[in-house]
Every structure is written in structure tokens, then in C-alpha cells.
Write a structure and sequence with these properties.
Helices cover 61% and strands 0% of the residues. The longest helix is centred in the first third of the chain and has 23 residues.
Amino acid sequence: MAAMAWWLIPIIATLLAIVWVTWRARPRRPADPHESLAAHQRFTEAMGHPAPRPQVTDEDADAPPSDRRSA
């Protein structure tokens, strides 16, 4: 009986993995053109903004460039 209990663990894990993979591989619904265009517009606007400059603290200012920590 104890051996059967030990076999249940990998069997249940395998079944759960099969269910998860099947759920993740399901076909996606068709994209709504209006949502897609709005998302693309938000993306292009975000890419048009300059990237923020890293902040250098007083502690980092004295260190050589290779030792400076990134913000």
C-alpha cells in the first residue's frame, strides 16, 4: 500500500503537467484591431521618450567607472 502511495505522487504530477501544457498551448483568440492599434501607439509613444539617466550618488562618484554601481 505504501508503494502505491509513492506511485501516486509522480502520476498526479504528470497529469497536472499535461493539463498545464494543454492549457498553455490552446489557440489564442483573434486580436481586436482597435486594441492592437492602441497598444502599438502606446508602444511607439513610449519608445519616443528618452531613457532616464542613471543616478550617481556621492559614494559612486569617487569610485572608478568599473566599480560604480548601476542605479
